[in-house]
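Summary for the lay section of the report: proteins are chains of building blocks that fold into shapes. Here we show the chain for Phosphogluconate dehydratase and then a coded description of the shape we predicted for it.
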Amino acid sequence: MNKTLLAVTERIRQRSATTRGQYLEGLDRLAGRKRGVDRMGCANVAHAFAAMPGNDKLRIVAEKAPHLAIVTAYNDMLSAHQPYEAYPALIRQEAHAQGATVQVAGGVPAMCDGVTQGLPGMELSLFSRDTIAMGAAIALSHDVFDAALLLGICDKIVPGLLIGALHFGHLPCVFVPAGPMSSGLSNNEKAKVRELYAQGKVGREELLKAESAAYHGAGTCTFYGTANSNQMLLEAMGLHVPGAAFVHPHDPLREVLTRQAVRQALSITHKQAYAPIGRVVDEACIVNAMVALLATGGSTNHLIHWVAVARSAGILIDWSDFSELSGVVPLLSRVYPNGAADVNQFQAAGGPAFVIRELLKVGLMHEQVLTVAGPSLQAFGKLPVLEQGGRVAWQDLAPESGDESVVRTAEQPFSATGGLKLLDGNLGRAVIKVSAVPEERHIVEAPARIFSDQESMLAAFKAGELERDVIVVVRFQGPQANGMPELHKLTPPLAVLQGKGFKVALVTDGRMSGASGKVPAAIHVSPEALAGGPLGRLRDGDVVRLDAVSGELQALVPAEEWAAREPARITEAQALENGHGLGRDLFAGMRRNVRTAEEGAVSWL
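The coded shape description reads as follows.
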């Protein structure tokens, strides 16, 4: 085993000793109770099962058959979640065949960040995670279930479901994915059209045509953003049926894997195989997720989300843990925006199974961990295949990559270190995704131009005011200010400026997420400007140094002058705009109570 991996895991274990101990004590108290129908009053039981067929009631009450919950994030606004419409019937059919029963315990909200990018709805996006967690808790609060199947894929939905489920940590839980959409217009071609549109060289009609050719059917978007990073991390945590992440929605194997998820959940309910989610998600499991993120250059959102996920299981992690692991974890995959391939090409080249197998081989993942498939992660380094008779089997992958431009062995990685870096300095702590950024762009030193919203920056770009070396600073975009929206509308103009040969970078207390691309971006700056963070001290023209090699984020201002400066304040008009209209008023309590990005931006502590 890698010494750094072991040291980080042990440090997390010691740091979390008190909170993890308290969590496990609570889990064991709940796990030791009688079944729901045996401890509940008759009226409670009657209400719980009133709408079920009589034979199902008999199975639950008299035969004491296992009873499964479905918590679903289905809606057909999200292409990734549209296939879930048919899942409850399929799951119920398989459960009946296995002598068990099922109820849809509840639905949770699921929003598409692609729809809300650059719009007021994006200011609800981060907080939707904790809303989903609460929705999952409400669904499971009926407390009549022996296990749960969690139906969710996209950005905030998986972390939210995980957080909610971990608050019912005594239950066995299996995540059930639905797979990616088929490949359309390549991500590189789509990005080129966006840049042409930003320069006014193509119109809205051409842009819409390109976007519609890229996002065209059921399934997750095919770039390696937060949604697909979620799936990679769930594989590394052992919370899927092994290899389920990137099988297409309409592949015959997909239905078989969904049925297998039911059988997997039922097998865990037997005490000899008892693996509740609160035991599966331990310190080693969390470290495995962190390693998987780094080895694949995954979404920067997970430096927020997985801090919150870990905290839900009593485990305390921070960005220093990610940074230390990044120093020893090799980059094994290049999927857009870190490369030209999409997730379908990633899957064809070996996918999550190849990456996990390679990391296990060199001691960069914990192998002996609880999973929904047994007490080892080895099964997640194999590929599921459809056998005659409609059963699934797992086969070993070839030793070599199916495409070395997409995935590589641990002995010949794309890079010796991971794709994420911690930055620190007099501007605070931030993270940067460097896996897609050319090495000559890892250090940028230039005068700052300060903005308080995306629209002002876009207006300055269109007016030609940024045609120079520049570090664009967009502040008052943190969780307390406006819910920490993603700032993807900034990517095309910044890419245009960089393409003209200028030294360009972005510094913000907002987010850029898994679609962060080739422009250096120091994001999640903490503390945020609204909370008095040092971004508020910056002035137009201050020289800023972003150094992803040394891990430095520094305003090159004399220390005495810097200390004497009063932080800028958000304008009354912007504060009013951030908090009102289109549902934003309802999230005022979350904005008041939210912790920093490095603390997981949780609103429930």
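Put simply, here is one thing we learned. The longest strand covers residues 443-451.
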